[in-house]
Amino acid sequence: MQLAVNIIVLAAIYAMIACGYVLIYRVSRVLNLAHGELMMLGAYMLLATASLFAATPWLAVLAAVGLSLLVGVLVYFLLMRRMTGEMVLAAVLATVALGILLRGVVVLVWSAQQQYPAQALSVSNPPIALPGGARISTFAAILVFTTAVTYAALFLFLRFGRWGVRMRAAGQSPLLAAQRGINLHAIYALAWSLSTLTGSLAGMLIALDSGLTGTMVIIGLKAFPAALVGGLDSLAGALVGALIVAAAEVLLIHYVDPLLSDVVPFLVLIAMLVVRPWGLFGTREELDRV
Amino acid sequence: MSRMPRASGYFRTDYAQDLALMQTRLERVSVALFALGLLIFPFLASPFQLDLACQVFLAAVGSLSLMLLTGYAGQVSLGHAGLLAAGAFTAGILFREVSAPFWITLPAAAVVGALLGVVFGLPSLRLRGLYLAVSTLALHFVVVYLGGEYETKRGFSTGIVIDPPVLFGFSLVDGRAWYFVLLAAAAVTLLVSLNLLRSRTGRAWQAIRAHETVAEALGIGIAGYKLLAFVISSAITAVAGALFAYYRGFVSVEAFSLFLTIQYVAMIIIGGMGSLLGALLGAVFVTLFPYWIESTLFLLPGAQRYAGEVFAVNYAAFGLVMILFLVFEPLGLTGIWRRIQSYFLLWPFRHRGSR
Amino acid sequence: MQTAPLLAVDKLEVVYHRAITAVQGITLAAEHDRIVALLGTNGAGKTTTLRAISGFLGLDDARVTEGSVAYKGERIENRLPHEITRRGIVLVPERDKVFPNLSVAENLAAPVSRGSIAERRRREALVYQFFPRLGDLRNRLGGLLSGGERQMLALGSALVCAPELLLVDELSLGLAPVVVEDLLQRLVDIRRELNLTVILVEQSAAFALAIADHAYVMENGRIVLDGSAERLRDHADIQEFYLGQVGGARRSYRDVKQYRRSRRWYG
Question: What is the ipTM of this complex?
Answer without folding.
Answer: 0.88
